[in-house]
Specification:
The chain is α/β, with parallel strands linked by helices. Helices cover 47% and strands 14% of the residues. The chain has 19 helices and 15 strands. The protein has helices spanning 3-9, 19-28, 46-60, 91-108, 118-121, 126-133, 139-144, 146-149, 158-161, 163-178, 190-204, 243-251, 255-265, 270-282, 288-302, 304-319, 327-333, 349-355, 362-370; strands at residues 15-16, 32-37, 64-69, 113-116, 180-186, 211-215, 228-229, 232-233, 339-342, 347-348, 374-376, 379-380, 387-388, 398-403, 407-413. Strands 1-6-5-2-3-4 form a 6-stranded mixed sheet, sandwiched between helices. It has a 5-stranded mixed sheet with strand order 9-15-14-11-12, with helices on both faces. Helix 3 links the parallel strand 2 (32-37) and strand 3. Helix 10 (163-178) packs across helix 11 (190-204). The longest helix has 18 residues, at 91-108. The chain is elongated, with a radius of gyration of 26 Å.
Length: 414
């Protein structure tokens, strides 16, 4: 199986500029290829994973992946998929995001070459830009591309209109300097990718062997876009989305989606995935496919130790043995749950439930305690006169409160 067959089996090919030509090329030699990423934020999210994991798959077949960080393109804004102009970032913001994304990508992806398109774009003067590159772009052709035509009704600035030229310049530069012959991108980038092919053929000749490949938009079985939660994006930065939350996101995927996600987001073999697909049919209650998915993606993004911590937190919360967690693990496990600050002074249990908004009234708090619905740091307490000493748990930083079977609250000690 070559890399194109591998991608096809995994459902990772949406469009190709020349399927037969690309297949012949990757069969005949190891190629260089790239995918770009604009620094619109200081962390990647799981939407970035598919194209870059696709590059990683090429790498495992002996090819040479490049990541282009858009220090230049990110400073003006990509019109793709947007109904209005992106807010303009300051160059300080752009540079901060470039550094953060570069560091993050270097930790996750192995053997990639990282480049910044600001390095070759910034020295170009306006007249050189217009004479050497602008002259090679036909405005009518640009207007017919969906990324531009979809914005014409509401309007598009000249700045965002020129984004396509700058991105095409990336492909031309990489082709000239590093013999990069393939650009990979999301389905919404097809217009930009083909513009790059056109520029190279005009500048270097029609015989230049360059190709474009896009990855399909990933949808869940219910037709909704994959990758969003009630809390927003699922980030790769552990400070934004903790490894435990990240693990849980994958573990909680529906049976109808999990095999598709295993194909796209793991490097498991076809035989391994076929076995997991069978387990979904014969023993869905074990959630073996979901557990494997969560393990594989968490380990890939955050590493073995973070995976062990995520699994430990998962097991502890299932058993209710909260006291087995470290202070750091409590912070990770209960990131995002309802929380409130309390003082380090001794506090009556009823008052603690009111202070942390577990209950709205002392009467309700007393009933919950007496009915055995309240656990403090995993211990069931039924005496309403109990005094809680904040300094005695988790280095005096946290108190974990559980009401009922699953509803958690966190008291943070000031």
């Amino acid at each position: 199986m070559n890399i194109i067959d591998e991608l096809s089996w995994r459902g990772l090919i949406n469009q190709q500029s020349d399927e037969e030509g690309l297949r012949d090329l990757v069969d005949s030699k190891d190629i260089s290829l790239y995918c770009g990423m604009d620094p619109t934020g200081d962390s990647m999210h799981i939407g970035h994973l598919l194209p870059f994991m696709t590059l990683e798959r090429f790498g495992k077949f002996g090819h040479h992946p490049y990541i282009v960080i858009g220090g230049a393109t990110g400073s003006i804004g990509d019109p793709s998929g947007k109904k209005a102009e992106r807010p303009m970032q300051t160059m300080d913001q752009v540079n901060h995001n470039v550094e953060a994304l570069s560091n993050q990508a270097n930790k996750i992806f192995n053997g990639f070459t990282m480049v910044n398109n600001f390095d070759w774009t910034e020295p170009i003067g306006i007249l050189d830009f217009l004479r050497d590159y602008g002259k090679l772009f036909n405005v009518n052709t640009m207007l017919n591309k969906e990324i531009i035509s979809s914005r014409l009704e509401v309007g598009i600035s000249f700045t965002e209109f020129t984004y396509q030229i700058l991105q095409s310049l990336d492909f031309l530069t990489l082709y000239r300097q590093h013999n990069v012959q393939l650009q990979v991108g999301g389905g919404d980038q097809w217009g930009n990718l083909t513009a790059g092919l056109d520029l190279i053929h005009k500048a270097e000749g029609q015989e230049a062997k360059v190709y474009a490949l896009t990855i399909p938009l990933l949808l869940k079985s219910d037709g909704t876009k994959f990758g969003k939660t009630a809390g927003g994006a699922v980030w790769l930065d552990p400070k934004k989305t903790s490894p435990y939350e990240f693990y849980q996101f994958w573990f909680n995927q529906d049976d109808k989606d999990v095999v598709n996600l295993l194909k796209k987001f793991t490097f498991l073999t076809k035989d391994q995935i076929d076995d997991l697909e069978e387990s979904v049919k014969t023993a869905p209650e074990k959630r073996l496919a979901q557990k494997t998915l969560a393990q594989e993606v968490t380990k890939f993004v955050h590493g073995e130790e973070a995976l062990k911590t995520a699994e430990k937190i998962t097991d502890v919360l299932f058993s209710g043995e909260i006291q087995e967690l470290t202070t750091e693990e409590v912070a990770e496990a209960f990131h995002g749950v309802p929380s409130a600050e309390i003082s380090s002074d001794s506090i009556n249990l009823v008052d603690l439930l009111i202070a942390t908004n577990v209950d709205k009234s002392k009467r309700q708090a007393r009933e919950d305690i007496q009915n055995g619905a309240i656990r403090i740091n995993g211990e069931k307490l039924t005496d309403t006169t109990t005094e809680i000493e904040p300094k005695d748990s988790f280095d005096g930083k946290y108190i974990v409160i559980r009401r009922g079977k699953k509803k958690y609250f966190l008291a943070t000690v000031k």
